[in-house]
Amino acid sequence: MPALYTGRFAPSPTGLLHAGSLVAALASWLDARAHGGAWRLRIEDVDTPRCVPGADEAILQQLAACGLQPDGPVLRQSQRGDAYAAALQDLVEKGWAYPCGCSRKDIETAIESAQSQPVSRHSAAVYPGTCRKGLKGQAARAWRLNVQAVQTALGLPALTHWTDRRLGPQRQNVPEEVGDFVLRRADGLWAYQLAVVVDDAAQGVGHVVRGQDLADNTARQIVLQQALGLPTPQYLHTPVVLGANGEKLSKQNGAVALDLQTPQAVLSALNSAAQALGLPAMPGQTAKVHALEKWTVLSRSPR
Ligand code: GLU
Questions:
Q1: Is the dihedral of CA 151, 122, 273, 71 positive or negative?
Q2: What is the SS3 assignment for 262?
Q3: Which of 35, 108, 244, 261 is the most exposed place for a label (fewest CB within 10 A)?
Q4: Whole-prediction pTM
Q5: Residue 267 dihedral angles phi and psi, to the nearest 5°
Q6: Pocket test for ligand 1, best of 63, 205, 214, 224 (most atoms within 8 A of CB)
Q7: Would you say residue 289 has pLDDT above 90?
């Protein structure tokens, strides 16, 4: 009988796990265990230029050192090209994906010449839909999802709603706040949004537990699930860990790899991650890591 709960941890091998990524790993593992469910691991190595050789194996070792063992085989996005191509083909056949010939500069110019206030989020311009009605002589560079076409055809509202298990009710107007987002990049690489949606469904993931910095992607992923006829998982976004400078810990801003050389170092890393989740620390320096199973469980102590 398949597990009723399937969760996952999906690190990008762009470096080793740091204190922030361990919070998401631990939260997703605890939540899966609390529900008697399965915990899958997926290596998100789709953005090959950003991947660091050997980081995938090193991450697996770091997780193993923390006692976080995945159930079942590890899925690698670099081997999933056929599944992503089939999903894109499906969207193209439904008339919901279109080729885009715009460079970043073209997009900026189009926004300026429309003389509207540039709409931007996270400093990225919202795509103005230039190629939605067909390429104008340019070569196709990327593939985009026609969000409005999907919503109209499926009778969906412009505002996508979901309830995050920690953040509560959330909503986003994807056509206005994001626009037609990229499914396949101009450099031929598959976009994160498409890969994550196809893989969560392929791995039977019903519960996504990940860092709050990723919460903004959720509405896009829900629209894409609807377009592909895939189920929408439940979402829980965990608190973001801030560094000493007050910025989010991330590989981009130089977060250091976790030191997991000794049992004490492992315990201290796990205790910090537990603290970030509002869980009580394990007592005693010599407590066994596997006593984790006995901790107050995330999903039963909502904060
Ligand atoms: N691969 C992403 C990251 O490491 C996580 C994606 C996800 O959990 O949806 O930030």
A1: positive
A2: coil
A3: 244
A4: 0.89
A5: -60, -40
A6: 214
A7: no
Best probe residue, ligand 1, of 28, 31, 44, 190 (max atoms within 8 Å of C-beta): 44
- CA–CA dist 211, 24 (Å, integer): 6
Q: How confident is the model at residue 272 (pLDDT cuts 50, 70, 90)?
A: very high
Residue-wise pLDDT for 156-191, tens only, equals: 999 999 999 999 999 999 999 999 999 999 999 999
Please report, rounded to a whole number, the percentage of residues in the chain having pLDDT higher than 90: 71
Closest ligand 1 atom to Cα of 200: 9
How do the residues of the chain divide into helix, strand and coil, expressed in percent and rounded to 5?
40, 20, 45
Kindly report the length of the chain. Answer: 303
Q: Which residues line ligand 1 (CB under 6 A)?
A: 10-12, 44, 196, 210, 214
